[in-house]
Automatic annotation (TrEMBL):
InterPro entries: Homeodomain-like_sf, InsJ-like_HTH, WH-like_DNA-bd_sf
Source organism, top-level taxon: Bacteria
SUPFAM superfamilies linked: Homeodomain-like (SSF46689)
Pfam families reported in the protein's UniProt record: HTH_28
Residue intervals of the Insertion element IS150 protein InsJ-like helix-turn-helix domain: 9-51
The protein, known as: Insertion element IS150 protein InsJ-like helix-turn-helix domain-containing protein
Taxonomic source organism: Halomicronema hongdechloris C2206
Length: 95
């Protein structure tokens, strides 16, 4: 899901700060959820920023930084190995 545009965010916050609409009214007017308006206003009041927050979701990396060097050595030793073979060899080296 993409964040709302900076222009839309600015208009929502400006109108809310001027008292030209409640959270419910602004959500209906701009066809966004009430929660979007509420969170945007809360963020602006706390930080002064209307910029979208960075995406922090997704799975955590399986390989740690220390594993990268081991994997690099395995690939250099046998650059024709398949991913399955490399995964098996890596598991043996780091287990």
């Amino acid at each position: 899901m993409c964040p709302h545009s900076a222009d839309l965010r600015r208009r929502i916050v400006t109108l809310y700060e001027r008292g030209e609409g409640s959270i419910r009214q602004l959500a209906k007017r701009f066809q966004v959820s009430q929660d979007s308006v509420r969170l945007l206003v809360k963020q602006y009041q706390a930080t002064g920023s209307i910029a979208p927050k960075p995406y922090t979701g997704g799975p955590q990396p399986t390989l740690q930084a220390s594993h990268h060097e081991v994997l690099r050595e395995l690939v250099e030793a046998d650059n024709d190995a398949t991913l399955v073979q490399l995964a098996e060899r890596l598991a043996c080296k780091i287990a």
